[in-house]
Amino acid sequence: PAALDAAARARGVEIRLNASVSRILVRHGRAVGVCLESGQTISAKAVLSNADPKRTFLDLVDSDDLPAEFLAAVRRIKMHGAAMKVNCAVSELPRWTAAPETPGPHHRGSAYVGPSIEYVEEAFADAKQGRPSEHPWLEVVTQSVLDPSVAPPGKHTLSIYVQYTPYHLSSGSWEDRRESYGDRVIETLAEYAPNVTKAILAREVVTPLDLERRFALTEAHQSHGEMGPDQFFSFRPVPGWANYRMPVRGLYLCGAGAHPGGGVSGAPGYNGAHAVLEDWKDLKAR
Fold first, then answer.
1. I need a surface site. Which of 56, 88, 168, 286 has the fewest CB within 10 A?
2. Tell me, what's the pLDDT at 157?
3. Could you tell me the pTM of the whole model?
4. Any residues with CB less than 8 A from the CB of 136 and at least 6 apart, and which?
């Protein structure tokens, strides 16, 4: 992000932080800018939304400015988030029972806890019933091995990506279950790296509800919509609107809700930007 920031600013881009958009301004069927939560208005020839399709079209654009069938399709987008994170500061690296060398090459990448297809299927079966997985699938990363600057000398960072944790719970709330389920995640990890429990100096449990609030991810879905055959290619974000240009002229979708979806490829933004460039002369003329 720092490299992208520097490259953009070097080319005259202005980047504003803590400047939430409350509304996309539409006049005569065309996007003409945005209104910030502060009340400030910013005019523009084109507006690109990196927010998910539901947040963009159900929250930021007036429904009167969009075709009814388009809105209905957006409402049908499946966005049932099923993941969360537990971030930890630790006094030592996890000592994996299966790979005791510490530090070892496995600390420089991702380590996965999902010992069998049956294990993963059982974890998903819990989530389908609205329950956080009793035996969750985990992805564990120790970033400080590759970049020591992110932790004090002799200490480390450890992040755990957890599946499956449904946004919609069948009982209780994520506010109530946050710490107890964080305990369950650590217990699961300790079955494979027993030293972890005592090594934790501090932890942060980021529930699906936290992901929605912190990153404006509708239903905590990091890919802005499920990545399945019915929401891929020409069906993303919805059928008929897969070329980044949206029903409001001058409004473009450039986030993971557009083709080819999530996965940190940068492709939706690249493609969305090129759609704007192709239209730019015509947009200026109007």
1. 286
2. 98
3. 0.90
4. 113, 123, 162, 163, 164, 165, 184, 185, 188
